[in-house]
Structures
1.
Amino acid sequence: MALTPNMFSVPQLSLRCIHVWRRNFLVWRKLKIPSILGNLADPLLYMLGFGYGLGALLPQMNGVSYIAFIAAGIVCSSTMTTASFEAMYSGFSRMHVQRTWDAILNAPLTLDDVVGAEIIWAASKATLSGVTVLLVAAALGLVQSLLALWVIPLALLTGVTFASLGLIMTAVSPSYDFFMYYFTLAITPMMLFSGVFFPLEQLPPALQSVANLLPLAHAVAIARPLMNDAIPAGLFGHIAALIGFCIAGSFLALALTRRRLLK
Amino acid sequence: MLRPAYHLEVRGLRKSYAQEDVVAGIDLALAPGECFGLLGPNGAGKTTTLRLCLGLTRPDAGEIQLLGVNVIEDARRARARVGVVPQLDNLDPDFSVEENLLVYGRYFGMRDREIRARIPELLEFSGLKMRALSRINTLSGGMKRRLTLARALINDPDLIFLDEPTTGLDPQARHLIWGRLKQLLAEGKTIFLTTHFMEEAERLCNRIAILDHGSIVACGAPRELIGLHIEPQVVEVYGDGAARWGDEQGRVLSERCELSGDTVFCYAHDATRLVAALETRPDLRYLHRHANLEDVFLKLTGRELRD
């Protein structure tokens, strides 16, 4: 079934979406310890494993140790994976398996409220994840300035971006297995080509320009300088790119969810 | 606030999918305090009609007024005074019985204090007082359905929609739900339900409509419809020779005679001759009964399977 202009109509949000966010929060609160551990395990393993393991073999990167270099990348990538997992696996569970969204739609809320709340919720979890990794990095002495506090709103913006992209997948996916396409074709390549583990300058010039299309690359380009006491070059360009991804991603996620559930 | 004359008013409702009319122009009006049943075979358009009335999907044509609110313009506001019991359970498996009610009440903008004040009476109503702290996966199917009904009442709605409320429940659970629905009707609530169970429709509904291929083929009180469409006496005949008996004698002794699988259905105003003839055939079993809503339903929608 094709997308119609109707599906792109202006979202009718209301303050009631807070109750949907709160519902997700209350469920998370029951299982917060395993959830936080799960979100932290991968990023910390990468950071410590590669950071100390590879770091011992590598020279300084522009004046910082390798582990300090990848810390910024890992803060951003953890935000990406947490937002993506929450929007896809948890979102799909709620939408399709438990039919939680159907229950909510029988109350005075619109699908716009539900999708908006799900995006903000996944972004909230993602922000917590990114901030926790940032705190670990700070505890290890890898953060050089208070400018790093700006990483908190950056994590929120990155979280919203990847939450909306994740919800696009949820809207079109027939099953959990389908999400593997996204991880294989989007998330993993993004991890490798966004400057998380090595500077973008190491890539051939043609691939370097591809990074402009990757939200994670923009996030890393902002986070790394901030964590190393510098103002990022081209800051407003990167922020504009992320905001662009947020808006386009959210509209597309909403349109596709409308197509799936409101026909 | 002026009470609307009808709690649900539908005019000229149309919805098609893939060039096919799923709802082909229907009109409905529910008076306050009425119990209205929408019956129909699979694929008739019952659930689509329900979704249209709730504003969960847009019609291609027609008007819908729900408790005085135009659904097409402001579905969200229309649903504020409505309760919905869906066909498939959608309770929150991560929350207890009580938490499910609390979380749901918040969607209506109710304060926690208000919701907590209502929870004890709702648990009492649904017979789940001892299970307030239970997890959803420890409840039986009947308990889950009762909880879903209690949840649908959290905002003290004027109109309650139920989509096949007792499908899949055992007789005890079914009777309990029916009792509770009758209680709600006695309190003045309006009910709109869809069902396959003719017994349910006959017991609960003041009026029913039979939907087939998206159009209403009959509408009225159950007794009226039976009187209007069906001969008052029915004799069902089973057994190996039933079909042949039907051909030879059943057809002659009754006003209408149908074969369905191995059973012969004979319809007549006066069944004495039929019964007398069957008494002479000890090899055939028969059932002599009054006509019921199922007979009306099968006459108007046919006996063919709907996939």
2.
Amino acid sequence: MAELVSMRIAYGQALVELGKVNPDVVVLSADVSNSDHSFMFEDVFPDRFFNVGIAEQSLVDVAVGLAYSGKIPFANTFAFLFATRALEMVRTHICYGQANVKLMGAYAGLSDSFDGPTHHSITDIAIMRSLPNMTIVVPGDPVGLAKLLPQAAEWPGPVFFRLNRNEVPVLFDESYDPKIGQAITLRPGGDVTLICAGLMVSRCLDAAEVLAGEGINARVLEVHTVKPLDVDALLQAARETGAFVTVEEHSIIGGLGGAVAEAVTGAYPVPVKRLGIVDKFAETGPYFEMLDRYGMSVDDIATAARQAIAAKKG
Amino acid sequence: MHYHPEELVRDLSARAQSFRIQVLDMVYNAQTGHLGGALSIAEVLTCLYFHHLRIDPARPDWPERDRLLFSKGHACAMLYTVMAHRGFFPVEELSTFRQLDSRLQGHPDPVKLPGIEVCAGPLGHGIAVGAGMALAQKMAQTKPSSFSAPSGRASPARVYTILGDGEINAGVIWEGAMTAAKYRLGNLTAILDYNGTQQTGATADVMSTEPIADKWLSFGWHVQEIHGHNVAEILNALDRADEVHARPSIIIARTTKGKGVSFMEYDHNWHGMAPNQAQYRQALAELQEELAKWQN
């Protein structure tokens, strides 16, 4: 069993490190800094931290003003609030107006599990992905987070950075070298491709192990950047494995699975089984148990892989 | 406060009136646009661009410039007109308003048109975005510059944001107002175009904002109330706002929607309607008659 490390503590640490090397980085919060751990930045850089109160629309707009003045604002609140309550601000200024704001979407997916469906964020990727000029990054573990966060600061334009609340398995070591916009083949295989982001990467790696015991060679492709999508890597995987399973901690409508299906449909159609939350709100409960309950278990992934392989054209 | 000579007041008043004629032409020729709120903000925009703002049309991205956020973006026909005559782009370009391939989009676009500071149109953004810009200026601690405004003002850069009175129905206005007060943004000045009319009727009927001065005072802002078509009062109020340091300030400019055209004044139907030929001719005659008074 891999070591479990808190993603939000890893986030706070990565933010502090970023603040040390980039003086233009400023951090804003809608009064949840002790939830998402952006308070760790405030402790070190109090003059570069702004709490605008419980006001997510203002949070984004104030960040826009700072961005237009040469700062690199990292705005922090829960992912669903960026994608719903503050969406008009995101669309108008950050995407259309090209303000260089980085949206740190905390407690994404089901990771705020005990706070219930009001706090779950299962439509944020679909919403953000529909916006021109938006970039969406979903780190797979604390190492990925630490490596991708500084790239978000350097990335020219808006980024929606999707953050998990909880302790998650550490998958990678220092040799892991993600680049925004480039999918990574974490495990080779020619029978089926398991396409994943975030915590689902660990579950896909586990599922690939299960499948290997049956003689099925499953490729695991980490798509930590949902937009812009690495279409070349996807089409290569389509040609070489002929079957896809997408796994995401999100609704199956419009998220990673939707993006992948859109990419291959016109270019190199293969069977795509999409795993995630099937068009419903979840409920309150323990995190890992809820992921299993709502269709994102290792067994679910292995089953979907077998079905996708069976669906290949003879 | 500075002394403003009568010639300056007459010159700015005449310019504002001539800009009304230009805006009427633009909306008539395009047969689309928002006249009422453009006509009400003529003097305020003219005073800012032709006297008060420390800007350089040749360097729209000059880091130490004053920022003007035109939050009531639908009235941008007047903004474009004032900017063109101030030298930001050729006056001839005004004829492309709202047409394909134009930089003069239906609502202001900072990516397409240099000199526009922020997108506007969806209402309510001006205070909070302006607060972000004012925060950044405070962090930068910009120094007085040798490059001054026509007014002679050479103080560090400031942020100005122009709001409509219907616009302040939006909740984010008040979120931003609290943030600006919290961070003591004395370098932020809002100007409220209090023309009393919004898209479907009088503001008093649609969503009353009274007592307007008390609202802003209670949010921690410095408040002035002026006659918004009186150039001398506008210039004095802008000077006074510059001297407020520990809190943001707002100038409530009492104006008339559709100012200068008898059949448009106070009529909400002229919020977003283009005139026909007969209406155009009558409006033009009325505006020219008033202009002649300022020029003589």
